Amino acid sequence: MKMGYSSFVAIALLMSVVVVCNGGKTSTYVRNLIEKPVDMPLDSDAFAIPPGYNAPQQVHITQGDLVGQAMIISWVTVDEPGSNQVIYWSDSSLQNFTAEGEVFTYTYYNYTSGFIHHTTITNLEFDTTYYYEVGIGNTTRQFWFITPPEVGLDVPYTFGIIGDLGQTFDSNTTLTHYQNSNGTALLYVGDLSYADDYPYHDNVRWDTWGRFTERSAAYQPWIWTAGNHEIDFDLQIGETQPFKPFSTRYHTPYEASQSTEPFYYSIKRGPAHVIVLATYSAFGKAKYVNLHDT
Ligand SMILES: *[C@@H]1O[C@H](CO)[C@@H](O)[C@H](O)[C@H]1NC(C)=O
Ligand SMILES: *[C@@H]1O[C@H](CO)[C@@H](O)[C@H](O)[C@H]1NC(C)=O
Ligand SMILES: *[C@@H]1O[C@H](CO)[C@@H](O)[C@H](O)[C@H]1NC(C)=O
Ligand SMILES: *[C@@H]1O[C@H](CO)[C@@H](O)[C@H](O)[C@H]1NC(C)=O
Ligand SMILES: *[C@@H]1O[C@H](CO)[C@@H](O)[C@H](O)[C@H]1NC(C)=O
């Protein structure tokens, strides 16, 4: 919320987590609030472009179903569309699995995005380490993540919460601080790149943000919701489709909870039932009843 008034986003942790949750005080870290935060320059190491022809960049994952047995794998290629395939396997699997996804592009004023891939991998086992590879056919890159325990078990599970991250030097410190915690999934409460602070909402700053956050977001799910800095509606430059950059780059598993709105959905993860509701989203009683029943 570094830019004054910001979006208000409600995330409710329901069910047993309310009862058993005892996070305690996990840190004495306080961000520097005295100097005005400065964005990291475009050539900063935090934004380094991975080497190799058409190498996947901005890799990030988010839960792909209601209970944690699927993952949406997303990445960007810039030289050519390349493959939408994800190859994945677990510690114990004797074979590799392949999933196919889709590729998207968008334009924003005079910016043209890279090739934005989203591929959902399914039928994952709980509590298991999975490795995955993207960039098939060109430069490949490998990452890993750990699936959550089965829903409903009374097991400890640690969520992180970050919002308003931006891409300042302080953002970098904040992310490092989070990486040194034991968070295994991140609830992202809106306001991602702050690209809209730049003239013409310079969408290059969406790409730098994607590369910056990859070092965490490729290895554990970041559960997304939209804030006011994602609106990117600007009549003066003819951009009239709200949330275009965010929606194209960050998918959510809203259909798995029978929602019809990408910014209103729920996921279950270990002991928690997380309800994501952005104030910009339509939501209805009928859908609420639906969620309540599951
Ligand atoms: C699975 O894919 C990885 C990465 O391409 C490869 O190193 C490994 O040998 C493959 N395993 C099997 C069983 O094919
Ligand atoms: C987009 O337009 C702005 C303003 O004219 C200019 O500064 C910028 O370099 C342009 N960017 C591209 C990618 O053409
Ligand atoms: C990059 O990968 C795609 C998809 O596998 C393939 O069709 C294309 O020929 C590759 N490009 C090069 C230059 O190898
Ligand atoms: C960002 O943080 C990483 C990890 O601590 C560090 O290696 C890198 O040098 C930092 N970059 C900047 C521009 O602060
Ligand atoms: C993370 O977990 C380890 C092992 O339980 C513990 O030693 C460490 O203090 C924890 N770190 C934080 C920041 O909570």
Automatic annotation (TrEMBL):
Organism, scientific name: Lupinus albus
Domain (Calcineurin-like phosphoesterase) ranges: 158-270
Catalytic activity as recorded in UniProt: a phosphate monoester + H2O = an alcohol + phosphate
PANTHER family xrefs: ACID PHOSPHATASE RELATED, PURPLE ACID PHOSPHATASE
Domain Purple acid phosphatase N-terminal: 56-147
GO molecular function: acid phosphatase activity; metal ion binding
Signal peptide coordinates: 1-23
InterPro entries reported for this sequence: Calcineurin-like_PHP (IPR004843), Metallo-depent_PP-like (IPR029052), PAPs-like (IPR039331), PAPs_N (IPR015914), Purple_acid_Pase-like_N (IPR008963)
Homology family: Belongs to the metallophosphoesterase superfamily. Purple acid phosphatase family.
Pfam families hit by this protein: Metallophos (PF00149), Pur_ac_phosph_N (PF16656)
Swiss-Prot/TrEMBL keywords: Glycoprotein, Hydrolase, Iron, Metal-binding, Signal, Zinc
Entry's EC annotation: 3.1.3.2
Gene3D superfamilies, sorted: 3.60.21.10, Purple acid phosphatase-like, N-terminal
Cofactor: Zn(2+); Fe cation
Protein name: Purple acid phosphatase
